[in-house]
Amino acid sequence: xLTYVLRRxxxxxxxxxxxxxxxxxxxxxxxxxPAGVICGPRCNTQRYQDIRASLDLDxxxxxxxxxxxxxxxxxxxxxxxxxxxxxxxxCLGYSYTLGQPVTKLLAQAVPVTVSIVLGAAVVxxxxxxxAGTLAARRRGSAMDRGAVGVSLGLxxxxxxxxxxxVALYATFLPRSEYHSLLDNPFAWASGLLAAWLTLGFTNAAxxxxxxxxxxxxxxxxxxxxxxxxxxxxxxxxxYRHGLRAAITPVATILGVDMAFQLTGAxxxxxxxxxxxxxxxxxRAFGQSDLPVLMGGVLVGAVVLVTLNLxxxxxxxxxDPRVRLT
Length: 325
Hints:
CATH architecture of the largest domain: Orthogonal Bundle
Number of helices: 13
Structural class: mainly alpha
Radius of gyration: 24 Å
């Protein structure tokens, strides 16, 4: 078990490092002058030279990559309009467009996206797993056909259409806005409620089908028939034995879904006016803000790798039949 964990952790770190180096090459080693892209068309000579010097663009490629990696662990110094700015570790760069370290910008945006995704996950996992389990228990009934039909119908509508309808016509829901959880938990929850319900119920349609299919397979296993033959109540057989085995493939899909939602919640953030990671990266793309784009890619890689690693390690907890070697 320990060997497997260490191997997976080292593999995850290697993936992040490769992503970092490749992204750095795409953004900062392109044929087009990165300093000119970051500075913009109305850039003066002094500002242009400051950007080149701060990013070590006038030095060899290995020095540039090394300076970026060093900034992650030891911080870095930038110069803008003759002013020296300290970027403490972990320094992901400095946005000359917004005049702030990338780490600070991400620290403001990431909690918004995390709040949206985690709250929505609670909704779609709860609704989807319960609906799928009930449909599997009554396979072939009107309830089963109705659950499958509703889930298929809801999945056929593009998500942004559903989100726009909710944003325009669901006036009974609280106004969407972001407040810090630590400052005011009630305002935090009410401001995100519309986004949670929209993202939650649209994803619950897919999780209903996933849970139903997995539960039907689980209820046909030998251990379930053995549990029934021992006289255990049907409720306990379904929710204690069957559901525990059926939840493993659902958890795998959940880990991947949450990772992609954390890095791609742009529709939800834009439609509901929430200043999350997707909005920040999209604005950086429009402004050619390469350091922010680089920081967004790195955060996305860390999220994807971390959630995949977490799901792998949770296998033995969710399903005792799985052994990690």
